[in-house]
Amino acid sequence: MAIDPRGADLERYLQEDPGGPVIMLNLLRFAEGGRESYDQYAKALSETFLPRYGGEVLYAGDGGTPLVAEQGQNWDAFLLVRYSSREAFSRMVADRGYQKVTHLRTQALTEAVLQPTTPW
Predict the structure, then answer these.
(1) Domains detected in the chain
(2) pLDDT tens digits for 80-103?
């Protein structure tokens, strides 16, 4: 399962840029004991990298029992993170300091969805 965006993913993401801010939907499924590792990653993200790149967590919460979903589509946690632009997000994930902490996210998760949204 893909956990982290790769070069081709980021290239496509930037090519599809409609301009303006982007809200990223994060769906997270934790590995056994992964919540602690993710919490360390989230602390670094919120204290250093989001402020540096114009990002802001709009919502973070734990998932409950789905009301409507196919088997296996339940998620442990959800985040909505606003970035000033798609380019700002791409610069953040390319940041050497960010790359030093991203392993915490990778080892914390068994599955993830990271999806940009476009307002209606």
Answers:
(1) 7-63+75-117 (3.30.70.100)
(2) 999 999 999 999 999 999 999 999
pTM: 0.90
CA distances in angstroms from 42 to 3, 7, 35, 38, 80, listed in the order given: 15, 22, 10, 6, 13
Average pLDDT along the chain, 120 residues, taken 10 residues at a time: 78 91 96 96 96 97 88 91 96 95 96 92
CA 20 from centre of chain? 18
Closest CA to 84 of 56, 107, 45, 116: 56
Contact 44, 110 (CB under 8 A): no
Separation in Å, CA 68 to CA 31, 73, 87: 24, 9, 34
